[in-house]
Specification:
The complex is a heterodimer of chains A (about 110) and B (about 110).
Chain A: E1 4-6, E2 11-14, E3 19-25, E4 33-38, E5 44-50, E6 55-57, E7 60-65, E8 70-75, E9 84-92, E10 98-101, E11 105-110
Parallel strand pairs in A: 2-11
Antiparallel strand pairs in A: 1-3, 3-8, 4-5, 4-9, 6-7, 7-8, 9-10, 9-11
Chain B: E1 4-7, E2 10-13, E3 19-25, E4 31-37, E5 43-51, E6 54-57, E7 64-66, E8 76-78, E9 87-94, E10 104-105, E11 109-113
Parallel strand pairs in B: 2-11
Antiparallel strand pairs in B: 1-3, 3-8, 4-5, 4-9, 5-6, 7-8, 9-10, 9-11
The chains are: A mainly beta (about 110), B mainly beta (about 110).
């Protein structure tokens, strides 16, 4: 079993739609959780950290369920510029700053 | 401007040759990392370093070597022992001793072995 698993995608949705990504992780002792965004042939960039209480940043909402070892990302009122690959990232306690990346979910927003 | 630079952006090498990828940061970060990304895959950790003159193997270190002689530099050598070296290589850095900190990435180097 992979340490971090994401919806395989790809997702193709119309502009203005709401889209949700799911991610599960296997290490119950993981402490830090992130969503990164990666544009085609570019480096990943942090979209948002994920906190236990859930957090929101504009149209983006991240949720963490420690009991189920599940992380989600919700994008509301999607824009064409949201088209990218979204990476679920979890820290590994084997090394305090080692991050484990999911394989990514590709999202395409259609006009 | 503060950031991470990687060079070159594209690199072509013949099979059997060693090649060194450059990574430099001026963010004053202690920790630096090297990842490899294959098409449709997530990032996999090759090596990481939390302080100068110290580094640890990641999940796929075989066929690679690194050095960390200066805080701002963390070069990666892809040796001829690496069986499938063609990939997108990403360098990252972060503040040390903070579990929940962000890793900042360089623009990457695309290595193609012919």
């Amino acid at each position: 079993r992979k340490e971090v698993e994401q919806d395989p995608g790809p997702f193709n949705v119309p502009e203005g739609a709401t889209v949700a990504f799911n991610c599960t992780y296997s290490n119950s002792a993981s402490q830090s959780f992130f969503w990164y965004r990666q544009d085609c042939r570019k480096e990943p960039k942090l979209l948002m950290s994920v906190y236990s209480s859930g957090n929101e940043d504009g149209r983006f909402t991240a949720q963490l369920n420690r009991a189920s070892q599940y992380i989600s990302l919700l994008i509301r009122d999607s824009k064409l510029s949201d088209s990218a690959t979204y990476l679920c990232v979890v820290n590994s306690i084997q090394g305090a700053q080692k991050l484990v990346f999911g394989q990514g979910t590709r999202l395409t927003i259609n006009p | 401007d503060g950031g991470i630079t990687q060079s070159p952006k594209y690199l072509f090498r013949k099979e059997g040759q060693n090649v060194t990828l450059s990574c430099e940061q001026n963010l004053n970060h202690d920790a630096m990392y090297w990842y490899r990304q294959d098409p449709g895959q997530g990032l996999r950790l090759i090596y990481y370093s939390q302080i100068v003159n110290d580094f640890q193997k990641g999940d796929i270190a075989e066929g690679y070597s690194v050095s960390r002689e200066k805080k701002e530099s963390f070069p990666l050598t892809v040796t001829s022992a690496q069986k499938n070296p063609t990939a997108f290589y990403l360098c990252a850095s972060s503040i040390r001793d903070r579990v929940s900190n962000e890793q900042f990435f360089g623009p990457g180097t695309r290595l193609t072995v012919l």
